[in-house]
Amino acid sequence: MDSGGKSFLMGKLRWLVLKTTGLLKPVYRRLGFFPYPGSVTIQHKRDTKSWHDTERGKQAAASLYEQRHTPVNTALLIAATIVLTLLVDISPLENPFWFTIDTVWQLHATIIGLSFVVLVFLLEIVSRSRLIEGALEQFLRKSWVMPVLVYSLLSNLALAALILYPDIRGGWISSNLASGIFAVTILGILSVYRNVVGLVLADDTDEEAYTILKDTISRKIQRDITIYEYDQILADDLPDRAVTEKTLYPYYAGRTDPISADDLGLSGVVSDIHVPTFVYGINEIIRIGEKHQSEEEEDEDSSEGEDEEKDDSTPVEVRVKIGDNLREFSSILYVDSEFFHEEMESVYPILDASILTRPGTGREETIRIIYKQTDFLDQEGKRIVRNAMTRPFILFMDQYRDVVHHSFEELDEARFLIEDHRYTNADLPFYDLDQILVHVFEEAVGEMNREFANHIITLIEELTKDTTDRELFGAYRRYMNLYSRFYFAVSLHNDLVPDSLTVELNDTLIERLGFATRNGIEADLDKFDELDEFDFRINSYSETALEEAHKIFKYAFENQDPRTFGTTWRKLNVPRNTGNRDVRKTIKREQQDLRFNAAAMTYDVAKDHEKYHETFEAIYNTCIRKTYHRIPELFEFYFRIKEKKGHRTRWGKWGHQEHDLIKQMHGAPYSLDPETDLGEFYCFTAIMNGYYNNHQERNPLDGETITEEEFRMIKRSVNELKRKQPFIDVRNHLDEEEFKERADKFLEYHEKIVDVN
Transmembrane region positions (predicted)? Predict the structure, then answer.
């Protein structure tokens, strides 16, 4: 058969499969998967290792038992009754007379009624407590209330049947059955009483919330691993110009031309994808796009180089994932706007036929449970602090620590999800775990509880140390962000708490921040052989620590808190003679630039706002004056920052930073221009602090060069300083004349190094 005939037969076969898949989708929907080899679910099942199947089998069995707890345990009680009856039958005990069954029934019914009135009262107390849904279910499961209740009612019906229909007593029903039922019921009720009272008195109900949260986080990460494996199966069959969305929980805001669930008529939870059909649809979309793109290129006489560039692009991105809960605008595919063409709508039925959905909530249910649990823990922690309950607080912190360490361990085992960029820092499976500490700390500060607040600060340092030890960069970033949040919490209560408590908490915060910063820097020294600017911005622990110090510098200055500003300044130290020399040098430069920028910010704001003058004077004498003495060093800092591209002063992007998420108090947007504001601070500091000697002939800037434009900018700043002479009184024994002489000398140094070529 020639190639044309084969192509025709393959086309007919593909058409038949597509039609069959589409027509039988209602049947497959009830099954939950496509029952043939092209199914992602079946391929995943086939490729999964046997030990993995065993683990999943155990998890499925445990899940089934939790869902069918009452009928399973009721059956066990019935089995116990039968066994007890048989044991009595073969024992030497005499059989009771049948007429006593009426008395047994009445006594049985009375005990059930009285017992469960008391039990209902106890359960009503429990249900009105602070338990959340999952913990209450665990409480009921552990107490065996429902199985014993169901068994008691069924056994009472059985006794009533024996009384109302005496003919069934003889023959195959033992005369000891009533005694067995009565005995098992009494023992069951006593057991329930013991369990309920024990659970209430032991107060293990809070621990259940932590257990449920840990189990749910584990289940979510395991489900994410499964989705990752599904994605890998699909990605292996995709054409070259299509990729799968890497992020497991992406943000779609601002993206254009998606093929949505509404376009395909899909709704519900994605349960399976038929790979051959889906890939055929993708190929058709690419074919249509390339056809119309080539027609447009011919019309525009595009060059050959541009054609090659477009051929290498990936205009189609698969966004649908198993477990997605599809809504009207849920994205199935993303097609580049320049590649999309309305003819692609003809492929929608093929894509629709390849995706199987079912009713439900999908992955969102697990996330809902986690948020519910973290909300409970948040409220519980604040309640404990509000009531100054020391022992429950220590227990709360221990349980919180246990949950977070459990999350770290789970992430460590699923590290490939992070390395393959499946998780972003925003959707690591902690959700509001880190925010719980913020809210509980705010409560502790508001209650002026020094012990609780210090305990929480210490815990942050422990957790950040654990993240660096495990190399969990996203977790390190999230918990490092709490230092500035805590400083804000203390600042918000400045008028309500004693100054001594404010100073103590701020000093402790910055001291612990210094330890966490050192841990981060050491992690970078161990991690990187070299550290370029991109890696430093994206993957560096040091950058995260410096960003946190950057925020605290600004918050402290706005709060007119030079003590915290100065403490932060001194704690930003880079370890000497450890790790890779080049990496350490990069980190040191960034630390120097951060300090210089922070000092420039205080000068730039204070010179125009009188209320900050006293704060700036304190910062000048404790930080600026003690750090900057040498003009060549200041020259290096200023021109290095000025020549940086993009991320130059940190202050230029302040209006878009995380402080906007902090309730009640917002840092004022601020921008520091490298050409003018930073340049003026450079001139001011060098004039005030630099070493000048009238007998010195050598120019301290020998070997450096600047352009004529750069000299004009410096000259303009120096003339402005000579005219205004700001903060001249911050340094003793420096009068106006000496300031002008220093300024002229400083300008002369720069004039001599102007490159005239």
Answer: 74-93, 105-123, 144-165, 171-193
Burial of 564 (0-12, 13-18, 19+ CB in 10 A): buried
**Which of these, 362, 349, 364, lies nearest to 259 by C-alpha position?**
349
What are 391-394's contacts with CB under 8 Å, separation 24+? 393/452, 393/455, 394/455
- Both 172 and 321 in a single domain? no
Domain that holds residue 548: 424-704
Domain for residue 513, yes or no? yes
687, 704, 721 — which closes off a domain?
Answer: 704
Local structure of 272: helix, strand or coil: strand
- Residue 628 carries which DSSP code? -
Mind listing the pLDDT tens digit for each residue in 460-482?
999 999 999 998 888 898 899 99
Q: Looking at the 3D structure of the chain, how many domains does it have?
A: 3
Domain shared by 331 and 459, yes or no: no
Same domain, 319 and 444: no
Q: What is the pLDDT of residues 339-398, one digit of tens each?
A: 888 888 888 888 888 888 888 776 667 777 788 888 888 888 999 999 999 998 999 999
Residue 289 contacts residue 334 (beta carbons within 8 Å): no
Percent of the chain as helix, strand, coil, to the nearest 5: 70, 5, 25
Nearest-angstrom CA–CA distance, 119 and 140: 11
Encoding tokens for residue 424? 């972003």
pLDDT digits (tens, 9 = 90+) for 555-581: 899 889 999 999 999 988 888 777 678
Residues 292 and 374 sit within 8 Å (Cβ to Cβ): no
Pick from 201, 216, 243: which residue ends a domain?
A: 201
Per-position DSSP letters for 58-93, written without gaps between them: HHHHHHHHHHTHHHHHHHHHHHHHHHHHHHHHHSSP
211's tokens: 């257990």
Please report whether residue 233 resides in a domain.
no
Structure token digits, residue 535? 């890696």
Answer yes or no: do 293 and 441 share one domain. Answer: no
User: Does residue 339 sit in the same domain as residue 431?
Assistant: no
Q: Do 196 and 110 have their domain in common?
A: yes
Q: Which of 494, 498, 545 is nearest to 518 (CA)?
A: 545
* 184 in any annotated domain: yes
Distance between CA atoms of residues 574 and 584, nearest Å: 8
DSSP designation for 702: T
In this structure, the answer to whether residues 348 and 474 fall within a common structural domain is no
DSSP string, 117-166: HHHHHHHHHHHTSS--HHHHHHHHHHHTHHHHHHHHHHHHHHHHHHHH-G
Where are any strands of DSSP class E within 157-285?
242-244, 258-260, 268-273
